[in-house]
Amino acid sequence: MTTTTRTTTPRTTPPRAYQHWIDGAWRQPEDGHYEITNPATEEPVGHAPEGAGAEIDAAVRAARAAQESWAATPPRERAAVLDRVADLLTERGPDLVPLIQAETGATLRVARGMQVPTAAERFRRYARGALEPDTVPLAPQPVQASALAPGGLIGAAAVRRPIGVVGCITSYNFPVVNLAGKAAPALATGNAVVCKPAPQDPLGCLELGPLLQEAGLPDGLYNVVTGSGAGTGEALVAHPDVDMISFTGSTSVGRRIAAAAGRTMKRTLLELGGKGAALVLEDADDRIRAAAVHSVASTWAFHSGQICTAPTRVLVHRSHYDEFVTALSRYAASLTVGDPSDERTVVGPLISAAQRDRVEAGVRAARAEGAEVLAGGARPAPRTGFYVAPTLVVNVGPEMAIAREELFGPVVVALPFEDDDEAVRIANGTRYGLYDYVFSGDAGRAWRLAARLRSGSVGINTVQRHPESPFGGCKDSGVGRDGGSFGLHAYTELQSVVWPS
To answer: Are 452 and 406 part of one and the same domain?
Structure first.
């Protein structure tokens, strides 16, 4: 593991104090502001507004007032607005990247390549989505007369209708991208949105307000209320005029949202935690095993493991185990940790001191249970910032907490297995089921093995994604699916319309 030196630019202006974005205008917070901290420098990036119930209520009222007219807007006009949002995001990307990098701690490669461009891609995709057919015609059926109605030939259609007001509560790892993945399909299908970003890095989400307005989105359809604690999100979930909650974040918070949303029978889309397993079978040749090493190492190299789909557990057939963990250990040692604004940096900081401490506590607990830390395990230089070294843990039993619980950091655990049955048993032995992976020389065998994994997605010989595939989890990894055209279904109600032919 190598480190980069930190470079800092002298501050010429004080950090900006933001306001809430409600009904197309900035609104001064009633409860003041809280500081947003750069995870790499521990310096202030800006000040976010503290949200209260009154501000959530104002945002929801604005959304409700604007939604009906937007739903009646021709789909082609909605598509044009979303296309223009994508254009503006692409145009303004260079200006947004420094802010998003500073508040998330993402490396330049991640910030430039995925934080803003992927958000633009999502608005572009759902500009097309606004034009997808929303009606499924059903063949007429002869129906006998009954006490209910006369008989006859009955026609019908299933039609997707807007849900109404959608509350979007987003994650801290990809704040603008995650918000785009919710707001874009919701707006495409005629809904209005009230957004509550993660407290750690909401500033980029606030910056989207004027940009969407400039793109021609009517006021009231996109609102952002931020807050440092749970109260703002709780007020959004409890509001009687919110029809749906779309949440990405931890399973513990998702459980509370599901319980609260159930009191008013809100639709929920919950994208929660993961503990992805990468299964490396005995028939994996040298090329596939090398690909598996690089894929598992993405847990370290891609946003410091702060991604719910990361293959944080690697299950290796015992015939390859020693060789594989040696390769992984060398890989971890080769990664450059440090200043995320340095082009050479691969591993940046975690989002906060609290998250760093949580990850370090998980590694200490594993050691106490008898596991061995083969790489990493100590806080790296530089000392300023919330860094965790790329860490590989071996001699791990499937029952250990580190093999079962999500840490959300650059930590990989390696476990050997003897046969497919044991591999499946270990992979399925957590409460999560979001994204697993199978590396095998026999694609048919991998396909059959995927059917045995209780996971919302399975990658075969790759950690790459398909942009149109449905995304979501099983078990404690969530409820519902979005992505591609499935995102249009997620943010609409299905209405049956029936008539006599």
So the answer is: yes
State both tokens at 441.
Answer: 């020389």
Catalytic residues, by residue number, are: 271, 308
> Which residues in 52-85 are b (16+ Cβ under 10 Å) and which e?
bbebbebbbbbbbebbeebbeeebeebbebbbbb
Q: How many domains does the chain have?
A: 2
Beta bridge partners of 248: 271
Q: What is the pLDDT at residue 8?
A: 43
Tokens matching residue 129: 């989505």
CATH of the domain at 431: 3.40.309.10
Cβ atoms of residues 426 and 417 within 8 Å: yes
Q: How far apart are CA 257 and CA 271, in angstroms?
A: 12
What is the model's pLDDT at position 5? 54
Task: Say if residue 304 is in the same domain as residue 218.
Answer: no
Which CATH number is 483's domain given? 3.40.605.10
Residue 50: predicted pLDDT = 98
CA distance 308 to 249: 9
Q: Is residue 3 part of a domain?
A: no
The 10s digit of each residue's pLDDT in 229-247 is: 999 999 999 999 999 999 9
CB 377 within 8 A of CB 391: yes
- The pLDDT tens digits of the residues spanning 131-147 come to 999 999 999 999 999 99
Question: Minimal CA–CA distance to 476: which of 210, 273, 268?
Answer: 273
Across the range 40-68, mean pLDDT stands at 98
**59: enclosing H helix or E strand:** helix 53-72
Residues 495, 381, single domain; the answer is: no
Strand order in the sheet with 25-27: 25-27, 20-22, 222-224, 192-196, 165-169, 244-248, 267-271, 478-479
Q: Is residue 8 one of the residues assigned to a domain?
A: no
What confidence score (pLDDT) does residue 14 get? 84
Domain enclosing residue 217, as ranges: 13-272+478-500
Sign of the CA dihedral running 175, 176, 181, 185: positive
Rounded average pLDDT over 289-304: 97
User: What digits encode the pLDDT tens for the residues 14-47?
Assistant: 899 999 999 999 999 999 999 999 999 999 999 9
Cβ–Cβ < 8 Å for 101, 340:
yes
Task: Specify the 3-state DSSP secondary structure of 114.
Answer: helix
From CA 374, how far away is CA 413, in angstroms rounded? Answer: 10
Could you tell me if 147 and 247 lie in one domain?
A: yes
Instruction: Output the CA torsion sign for 319, 322, 325, 327.
Output: negative
Structure token pair of residue 481: 């699916």
Asked whether residue 398 falls in the same domain as residue 485, the answer is: no
Is 138 in the same domain as 257? Answer: yes
Around 73, how many Cα atoms within 13 Å sit in the side-chain half-sphere? 24
**pTM for the whole thing?**
0.96
CB atoms within 10 A of CB 500: 12
pLDDT higher than threshold 70 for residue 264: yes
